[in-house]
Amino acid sequence: MANKRQGPITWFITQEFLQRAMAICMGIFLLQYVNWMMKEAVVWEETTANLIKYTLFGIGATYFIPKIPIVLRGAIQVVVIIVITGIYLDYKFIPITAWKWSEFLPFIDGNMLQLMPYLWFTLGAGLVYVISIWGMSKKLWMYIGIMGSIIAFCIRDSFSNLSLWKEIAVVLFCSTMIVIITNLVRIQKHSPDAWRKLSQRPFPILIPVVLIAVIFYSIVQYTPSIRPILTDPYTAWKNYNGEQVMKFTTNEGGSLPANPDNHAESGYSRSDESLGGGFKYNYRTVMKVTSSQRSYWRGETRSVYTGSGWEKDPKEQDNRIAVKPWEAIQPDPRVDTSKASINSIPYTVTMLSDEAYPVLFGPNRIQQLQEITGKDGQNNPSIISKITWTPNDAVMNFKGNSSYPTTYTMVSQVPVIDVNELRKVKIEDVSAELWQDYLQIPETMPVRIKELAQKITQNSATPYDKVKNIERFLAGNFVYNTEPAKGTSEDFVDQFLFEVKEGYCDYYSTAMVMLTRSIGMPARWVKGFATGTSLLEEMLEKGGYRGAAPRLSNSADEFTVRNADAHSWAEVYFPGWGWVPFEPTSGFTMPTVLVNNVNEPIPTPPVANVDAPVDATDAGWNWRMWTFIFGIVLLVGLVTFLVIKFMPWRNAMNLVRRTRYSGNYNQMVVHDVYRLLQYAKRKGFERESNETTLRETLTRWMQTSVWLERELTTLLILYERAHYSGTMLTEAEWFEALRTIRKLRIAMK
Predict the structure, then answer these.
(1) Are residues 345 and 465 in the same domain?
(2) Residues 142 and 148: beta-carbon distance below 8 Å
(3) What is the DSSP secondary-structure string of 659-699?
(4) Are residues 25 and 158 in the same domain?
(5) Kind plus residue range of the DSSP H or E element containing 286
(6) Are 350 and 287 in contact (CB under 8 A)?
(7) Tens digit of pLDDT for each residue in 503-523?
(8) Which one, of 332, 328, 362, 389, lies nearest residue 579 by Cα?
(9) Which of 607, 624, 645 is the last residue of a domain?
(10) Per-residue pLDDT at 90 exceeds 70
(11) I want to staple 113 with a disulfide (CB 3.0 to 4.6 A). Which of 263, 544, 620, 690 is the partner?
């Protein structure tokens, strides 16, 4: 019942205050792990990280519900997790069509599949949150958790390109608060009088806490960057081995590689002047594209090859044209597409990244900009004024580092490729003077590259076959590797073709452009994003009942594009057909629209981990198997808890002792008291060396821990009767001693 002097708001705030404070600090503590994982390249998707964040907030909020049993709170927390997951994933209930067993599995699959696998992450996050709050109440686990976290953050910050200083500062602050709260809980439990006085005059505790918070915030916010006086061991070791360390150069605490030899993360590149080096995949989501057709999402092109990378041709930037919504965009007058059949493909791009890009993405050549909206959801004229079109390279440019559109709808022209007609194009049809910019070859490029191009194409009768053979040669003879070896040649293409013979898309596409130019065909280098993953593919990858897939087929044209999908390829000009894309990278297939009279096989878009048709029961086994396993583990854990908590296992132990001492309750009481002394020592209730009798020890404990006086007095009387008197204790008195010892054990925790 609330104190009469307290109002309802004061009563609500003060009820279980320390538990709520612990929940808040623990939630902020765990949130730093989420922030850390979001900075990693290949740990969590953005959706997973956001769901875990919301789960931590939701679970923390349940601790503000006063005076409810722990089982009820746990049930509420599970419901909160499911609701948060469903709302974030835009869950749509799929009703059962008929109350038959054959329809029950599709009903379960169709609904559960929408939450998988993210529900496992959110349930796991909630379980970790609850267990962490319990663990932090134990002194040993508290210090293990705090020290382990600080060490882990510091090691990752020091030995990687991640900046985790803000997270480390917050972890230190939360750790300090957790230690303070844990000690206050002990004071509240073991010294009620001291706690009552402290709660009436809390300023001696609150003032240091506020000062600590201010100090930590000041350190994080205002401490300037200072160069170290001594070189740290990690940097010294790297330099000794001839390697360089990542340089921290961004304003937001991120890091950038000092040179291309260092490992970077996958994503849309800003500078292509120095290609090469390794990278690690970054799976953060960039955008979602709604389109009726698969495509590569084209960004920018480059035409000037320097021997080490690509540079912009100033001519490509001279003729920038303002873009107006719903007006046709002017094509490059030099491009002849008179023989090509064109499909107009509308598509909508929704950006999910806060990053501003220098272009708007689209398949092949953009024909029209229809709608565009900013972060406010409005068609802002200031955004449109930043968009221009350059016909030479067919790029939709965006100028500025802010106000990048969040959604835009455009129409692109996608040519229908007729291979038989393309084979009729002759090399004489190509005007070398008109397309000299795309035939550029640096004088420093080794001759053996041209010789290789001639060798690859010597048996090809037409320009198309020559280009196609170059594409096949690269895709079939070189190894895809995101961490290729280093070569000695000064030319990037020469290194790839003759030395390292491995690499990723930049290696393959650059080599194809230069090999194609070597046979007299205009070619240019293109960068953007590969197709990404459709919604249907994501559902199938997660495993589930295939019968649910047709119900989601209306969303199968939504593609999720991530930084890991960043890609580059080649475009080759064919008179009458315009710029035709080619995919030389091993393991990649470019979606292409072909006519029906093509003799060569039409490449099918890859669908990850989709096997031949299987039985519906087997298809749904993946997630049901894990659900079954999770249920078994949960059931075993629950039964174990009930056995430990409620079953009379203690009576069995008592029976063992009764058998051992043959019903001598005096010896049993003495034995149990000595076991209590061992337990009390672990909890800080030690026996001093000058105390010769147990009475002296227990009397001192009564004086220092007054809340134990009643139980200690009862136990002392029973102990002295059992140890010193000649009378035998009864079974009832032994049980009374056991109950008293149990109370003391609980109070000493």
Answers:
(1) yes
(2) no
(3) HHTTT-HHHHHHHHHHHHHHHHHHTT-PPPTT--SHHHHHH
(4) yes
(5) strand 285-291
(6) yes
(7) 999 999 999 999 999 999 999
(8) 332
(9) 645
(10) yes
(11) 544
Cβ–Cβ < 8 Å for 182, 143: no
Residue 131 half-sphere exposure, CB side, CA atoms within 13 Å?
8
Pick from 494, 499, 509: nearest CA to 310: 509
Residue 602 belongs to a domain: no
Assign 1 a pLDDT band (cuts: 50, 70, 90): very low
Neighbour tally for 748: CB within 10 Å: 18
- How far apart, in Å, are the Cα atoms of 387 and each of 72, 316, 397, 450? 56, 15, 6, 39
Q: What is the pLDDT of residue 408?
A: 92
Whether residues 187 and 284 share a domain: the answer is no
Q: How many CB atoms lie within 10 A of CB 48?
A: 20
Distance of alpha carbon 414 from alpha carbon 394, whole angstroms: 13
How far out from the chain centre does Cα 347 lie? 28
Any domain includes 261: no
Domain of 37 in residue numbering reads as 8-222
User: Residue 44 — left, alpha, or beta (φ > 0 → left; ψ -120 to 50 → alpha)?
Assistant: beta
Residue at 144 is within a domain? yes
For 239-255, write each residue's pLDDT tens digit: 655 555 544 433 333 33
Are 136 and 18 in contact, with CB atoms under 8 Å apart? no
| Token pair listed for 261 | 């030899």
Q: Band of the pLDDT at 13, cuts 50, 70, 90?
A: very low
pLDDT at residue 98 in the model: 66
Q: Answer left, alpha or beta for residue 29, where phi above 0 means left and psi between -120 and 50 means alpha.
A: alpha
> Same structural domain for residues 635 and 704?
no
CATH of the domain at 510: 3.10.620.30
Class of residue 440 by CB neighbours under 10 A (exposed 0-12, middle 13-18, buried 19+): middle
**292 to 343, 348, 427, 647: CA distances (angstroms):** 11, 10, 35, 63
631 and 743 share one domain: no
Chain centre distance of CA 559: 19
